[in-house]
Amino acid sequence: MVYQIYPRSFQDANDDGIGDLRGLIERLDYLNDGTEQSLGVDAIWLSPVFESPMADFGYDISDYRAIDPVFGTMEDFDALLAAAHQRDIRIVIDLVLNHTSSLHPWFIESADAESEKADWYLWYEGEEPPNNWLSCFGGTGWSWHNTRKAWYFHSFLPEQPDLNWRNPAVKQAIREMMEFWLDKGVDGFRLDVANLYFKSAGLESNPVDVFRIGRPYDRQFHRYDRDQPELHALYREMRQWVDAYDDRMMVGEIMIADIDNATIPASYCGNNDQLHLTFNFEMLRAPFDASTFRQIIAKWIDLLGPENWPNYTLSNHDVKRHVFRYGTGPGGHQRARLAACLLLTVRGTPFLYYGEEIGMPEQRVARDDIQDPVGKYYWPLYPGRDGCRRPMMWNYPNNHFTQGISWLPDEPVDGHSVTQQTDNPNSLLSWYRKLIWLRKRTPALNKGDVQLLDSDEELLVYERRHLAKRILILLNFSANCRTFPLNEESIAQCLANSDAENPSLNYEHNELMLGGYQALVLELYPD
Ligand code: GLC
Q: Which of 472, 504, 512, 468 is nearest to 488 (CA)?
């Protein structure tokens, strides 16, 4: 299980209001102290901590080999790596390779058309930008550079110029940088916007669907500024760089439009010779609905094929937290428990987002407090991503995130703190811990096959199998009771029941009955 940490918001050790590496080290026991009292995290995906002007909070890197002082020093990073490894926690760092900061020395040098790095970014000399490519963060993707007297392309902010991946020197520099971190002992890389590196050499304009609702960026078909065929060869090469080291991995973030599906992310795994994992964002936008999840899972398994390993995630630092998406009204707590059960029992690596284990809610951020550049640009149409990046709620009524002034509002919310949930066996945190440790010690759950079973359309039912061990997972996505044909004699034991108040199983006419939003993990007798 991988746990994503947005480091600005996890734990502040030096009281400047921003989370840091020392703070994270202090919290490692919470993540995994080797006992079932801790969360049992196997790996941390750490959002960027490299030196950065923070125009996009670290996703604009000005030095790939230095830690930003806001987060600490390289010694702190080394201490984190050692302390994490001591606890069997791996560290996956977040590499932003599509673009750098405009303050990266590479870009500064590249602004001189005579320099060695003149061709390291996507420059266009002309009166007008060459095409209609847009910035995902709003406005045109082409900005004028006054020194070079040319346009440069940025898929995101003007402060995030895109690298020219067609230049072999860029590839070599990135390779050496990745090897620097691999030599240091990091366990893997999360690759930011991994399907954007190449743009069409012909610089053709993207087709536009004028009738589509949404931001101008979403009305374009990104035929020429994403998913270029050259990328597969690059990933085959990169896979060899990484696999030259023992036991390391890459997980790619693949941007897909609403109309796209998982075919695109699956394609970047290739025949298990490109990226080890890719995120399937279909799941991040799926409604709370059994048949949608069933289809997504079935399609994902099918597209990945037997040679690739799936992964699942419901929340991250760019989208509204799933507790919010699935509704915090009546039944919200039960839906959160069901979602955890899905994530932690389906076949594939689960990626959790910090705070989801305590049901941390989204935060409303007033306009004046908005930090996210995307929120500033699109407000009020879209208030940005600050809401899902709120400081971790360690305690109540004082969050204990910082003694200083938090970079984002850190209002406490009663019931949603680690200390309030830690000793309560019925809390969401206890449920996550239970499922995580169950998964860890049960091969059928952590590596077994999966088979989706026919059921009432409001139920999602699947069986996990390893050797003779059979585990059945039943998830009732409806608020009402539902039944599944299964009699008492087939059940060896109930391993987990989301309905903490009514732990016994109910039957009606020889059928198993599930209450509203109930999730069950049952061990069946071998057949
Ligand atoms: C990815 C990151 C996001 C960032 C963007 C630009 O989508 O997840 O947070 O703003 O890339 O680097």
A: 512
